[in-house]
Amino acid sequence: MGGQAVLEGVMMRGPRAYAVAVRRPQGDILLISHPFQPLVSRKGWLRFPIVRGAVSLVEMLVLGYKSLDYSANVAGQAAKEIEEAQKAAQAAKEMEEARKAGRDAPAVPDSIPAEKNPPSPEPAASAQPPASPQPPASAERPIGPWAMAGVFAISMGLAMLLFVALPNAATHLLGLLSRDGLIEERQPLLYNLVAGFVRVCVIVAYIWGISLFKDIRRLFQYHGAEHKVVMAYEQRQPLNLERIRPMTTVHPRCGTTFIAVVILVSIIIFAILAALILRVYPPFGGWSIWLRKTLLIALHILFMPLVAGIAFEITRRAGKRPDFWLYRFLLLPGLAFQRITTRQPDDAMIEVALRAFFAVLEPEQLALIPEEEPGTTPAEQTPSLDAVPV
């Protein structure tokens, strides 16, 4: 079980399905769920260690984009409905005032269809959202393959620029300021340690910077809600608010932890790569510095799937044995990162995460959840799911 935060909601992924629950500004929750079978379970040759990590990473990125697109469209549709309701209420108010004053009613805005015999206006009722809204058709519109490829390419390009090219360029400039210089192919381990430190600084500055935005802070709260629900389930706790609230917002299998492990693995892989190039092809050391650096950065990008695959295997095993000293050491930077990327959620956010979580549970998983405790009612155990429009 796992997932991610989306705009005003949570995406949860189970063994055979994923679901996205989003709270609209009107206060209700929309929920969609779709079947999902990981590619590694359909293609046997993709199950090999390291390969499955790179494939799973790309698959989760695509799934994450789809979920974010849905949540963004729900927010846009809700904003449009609120605006139309406000216009209708304002028009009704003006018509009522004109009727009382004995004047002609003002022209009805184009967005409100005129009726031959309009009923007596009821502003309060007209301003209310529908009692049982359905997910808007536009919110579930499929993302075209070319649009998805374009978004993915731009995102990966920015990621490579910020977290690969920029740290390498900064480390090279720092080397120029030192007395003996800092050349990657001559001092591969030291160079990549410095580059790794710069990469950490860039990532922390980036996360801290976006956390200043209100919407991102709320996103981090939903991230915390997702972690709390998954943690309560994995600890075999009854899934009610009382048991979920005290749960930690830090989880060893979080994507933030994965990023930290990627940085640690990249230091080792890139150091070996730089030393190996010079050993296999000694004339490489005679090339111009800009040509050598361009090639090394390109190779860093090319080897990122290998780095991601190794980091995936480490994170996967560490999630199963979080108390092992080596895994605890490797996960420590990522757990520290999560202090920034997760915030304490409120009960309404936990409810949203629960809606998505229950939508993807298999019957055998549902049976693992402890029964209600004596003295509690079903309503106290979990929010009712009957009213969730699907």
Round the Cα radius of gyration to an integer and report it. Answer: 26 Å
N to C succession of SSEs: EEEEHHHHHHHHHHHHHH
Number of helices: 14
Q: Indicate the overall shape.
A: globular
Number of domains: 2
**Poorly predicted runs:** 110-134, 374-390
**Span between N and C termini?**
21 Å
By secondary-structure content and strand pairing, the structural class works out as alpha+beta
Strand order across the largest sheet? 1-2-3-4
Q: What does this molecule look like?
A:
Helix 4 crosses helix 5, helix 8 (255-280) crosses helix 10 and helix 8 (255-280) crosses helix 11. The chain folds into two domains: 1-142, no CATH class; 144-359, no CATH class. The two termini are 21 Å apart. Helices cover 60% and strands 6% of the residues. It is of the alpha+beta class and 390 residues long. The chain contains 14 helices and four strands. The radius of gyration is 26 Å and the shape is globular. A four-stranded antiparallel beta sheet has the order 1-2-3-4.
